[in-house]
Amino acid sequence: MNEGLLVVISGASGTGKGTVCKRLFELEKNITFSVSATTRPPRQGEVDGVNYWFLSKQKFEEMIEKGEFLEWAKVYDNYYGTPLGKVEERLKNGEDILLEIDTQGALNVMEKMPQGVFIFLLPPSLEELKRRIVGRGTENQESLEKRLGAAKMEISLANKYQYVVVNDDVENAAENIKAIIKAEKSKTERNLKLLEEVI
Cα 80 to chain center, whole Å? Predict the structure, then answer.
């Protein structure tokens, strides 16, 4: 059985990662979402192992000590992370896994799983990014400036990724990512066939 593909999508806040990933799942039925672990309590209706793996702070910190996360971060008072064992197990079973994470997390994944496919989602322009963030109606002027400053810093990391996709239109961006996944899978399958022929 061919090993699955790990696809990592990241980009600046406000780029539309969540919307593009949602559309990608509708287009690409063979890809599954990686379930993260967190120490925050479950919200009403959330199911352990479906929405998140809900862990105690002590258990999460033990897993950090043992290097059992592909990437992790502390956000306010809670930890969030991607359990390495779960991802490895599913990839070995031939599942394609999508990780939608921030740039810091993606850089950590690049170190631990360089065989992954890393895609950076770009806004059409900084002006458009600003318009999208303002459109959410959740930012005052100070936090807007902070977000835009952070976005510029994150965008400067795009050259570390294998692919850059511009989210000028959700449908186009999702189709482009689908094409990247198809190309990467055929490349892997072709290499395996060549190996079999040689052996």
Answer: 13
